[in-house]
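Worked example 3 (structure in, sequence out).
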């Protein structure tokens, strides 16, 4: 059975501005399409719940693919027009903090739960580095689902 830990994050939930939420989450999750899941653990994204600064995030230290070598991927909760999203970023760790280079995917689903979840994709042009000018995301439904597992 997968080990669960408490996941802390600050959020702006309706009626609870900047409230700290505590949710039990698995320590490790595997995310990928069903085809990648069938190919094995080396072909999916292994996220581990880790501290970065004063908050916990799911972080993938060695993604099987990213836009730039050396990138990490991490999932950040964000509020947009009162809706809770979980956004996957490519970026790097800098002095113990996560530096967002580019948002890649997002979902409103409880992505840490086992099963299939719908994700949106960012179609905006990729930033070449964390130091280049920020590009606003252009979200659209991807038309596909991604599978989450707790064990591989």
């Amino acid at each position: 059975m997968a080990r669960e830990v408490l996941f802390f994050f600050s959020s702006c939930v309706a009626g609870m501005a900047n409230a700290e939420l505590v949710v039990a989450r698995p320590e490790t999750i595997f995310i990928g399409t069903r085809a990648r899941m069938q190919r094995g653990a080396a072909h999916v994204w292994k996220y581990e719940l880790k501290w970065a600064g004063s908050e916990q995030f799911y972080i993938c230290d060695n993604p099987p693919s990213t836009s730039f070598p050396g990138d990490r991927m991490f999932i950040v909760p964000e509020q947009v027009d009162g809706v809770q999203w979980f956004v996957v970023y490519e970026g790097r760790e800098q002095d113990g903090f996560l530096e967002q280079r580019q948002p890649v995917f997002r979902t409103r689903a409880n992505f840490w739960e086992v099963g299939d979840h719908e994700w949106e994709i960012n179609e905006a042009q990729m930033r070449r580095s964390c130091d280049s000018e920020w590009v606003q995301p252009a979200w659209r439904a991807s038309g596909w689902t991604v599978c989450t597992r707790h064990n591989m």
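Notes: The two ends are 12 Å apart (CA to CA). The mean pLDDT is 81.
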